[in-house]
Amino acid sequence: MKHAKSVGSIFRRLSPALLLPILLVFQATGQAQTKIDATTAAKLQVGFSIGIQKINDSSMRYAKSVGIDYIEVGGTGAFIDKNRNFIVSDEALMESARKAKKTADAAGIIIWSIHMPFGKHIDLSEPNDTARKSVVAIHDKIIDKICRILQPKIVLFHPSWFLGLNERPLRIAQLIKSCNSLNPRVRDLGATMVIENMLGFERLRSEKLERPLCRTVEETVKIMGLLPASIGSAIDMNHIKYPEKLILAMGDRLKTLHVADGTGKQENHYLPCSHKGLNDWNKILDALYKVHYNGPFMFECHYQDFKQLPECYNELYQSYITSLKK
Q1: Which of 19, 142, 156, 216 could form a disulfide with 14 if both were Cys (CB 3.0 to 4.6 A apart)?
Q2: Cα(202)–Cα(205) distance, rounded to whole angstroms?
């Protein structure tokens, strides 16, 4: 027991930058025991992100007809102004949710997740505690008036907007407080709260701003380690170079995806099959199978027609299966 305690204390003293490679080695060791081949790599179902205002009978029926089974509901930020005031009544919020839920259900589409509002004025890491509490109150109302009706499996939050210079420790602490306030509300719905990684290009700061929280694998590991285990990870493949590294680092805390291609430098949101980005989709799919991800392949990208999304997933999947046979 003394040996176990001493090892634990050593791990706690390691910085995230030193701890991450060790964690990845342990994960890789365990994952290597799971042989992935063409018979065990089952296909995932396909989903896509859509604004709540765009959910109608025509869009949902067509999405279902081309092979889409899940949606993530976004667009809730349109109900809130820059002063953090709702610009519609509570009844209007609930009516928009009732219409979306009824329409999706009628088409056989499952509401998998809801993307909570975000922006410069809707930031869970607000350094001013009064402002932070007002942001939490906004999310509380969305949970109560919209999520409770939509009944999503996943409720997705951004960890922050851009930060002022040298604020990261304070902002992380503020984010933790906000998450600890909101997580019980989400769990009361029977849903899982998740935090999304943000764009983390190599350049951390400009003259006046730093990039948002969860900008690297190391920082995401650190922040997730400070949150309750019941809070999961949402991985946006457009926000980071080598998304497979973050997938492996998150392991079974990965609960949902934002699928798009990119360079890791800008918000590209390319359709993966446009081949404009730099992601290695065989490595990404391999990582998803290694961590036993079984949620939908949730697209959040540019496209011209809904049918391109299942077609693209099938192309990526077939490429991956072919690579397993080589």
Answers
A1: 19
A2: 9
Six-digit token string for 54: 């765009």
* C-beta of residue 259 within 8 angstroms of C-beta of residue 248: no
Q: How far is CA 269 from the centre of its chain?
A: 14
CA distance 218 to 220: 5
Amino acid at 120: K
Tally Cβ neighbours within 10 Å of residue 36. Answer: 15
Rounded Cα–Cα distance for residues 127 and 174 (Å): 7
Other C-beta atoms within 10 Å of 44: how many? Answer: 19
Residue 17: how many other CB atoms lie within 10 Å: 13
Distance CA 131, CA 84 (A): 9
Cβ–Cβ under 8 Å, residues 254 and 235: yes
Which regions of the chain does DSSP assign to beta strands (E)?
46-51, 70-74, 110-115, 154-157, 163-164, 192-196, 209-210, 232-236, 254-258, 297-299
Query: Rounded distance, CA 193 to CA 183, Å?
Result: 6
Buried b (16+ CB within 10 A) or exposed e, 265-275: eeebbbbbbee
Residue 174: φ, ψ to 5°: -65, -40
DSSP secondary structure string, 106-151? HHT-EEEEEE---BTTB-TT-SSHHHHHHHHHHHHHHIIIIIHHH-
In order along its 326 residues, the chain shows pLDDT tens digits of: 444 444 444 444 555 545 554 455 444 444 444 567 766 789 999 999 999 999 999 999 999 999 999 999 999 999 999 999 999 999 999 999 999 999 999 999 999 999 999 999 999 999 999 999 999 999 999 999 999 999 999 999 999 999 999 999 999 999 999 999 999 999 999 999 999 999 987 667 777 889 999 999 999 999 999 999 999 999 999 999 999 999 999 999 999 999 999 988 888 999 999 999 999 999 999 999 999 999 999 999 999 999 999 999 999 999 999 999 87
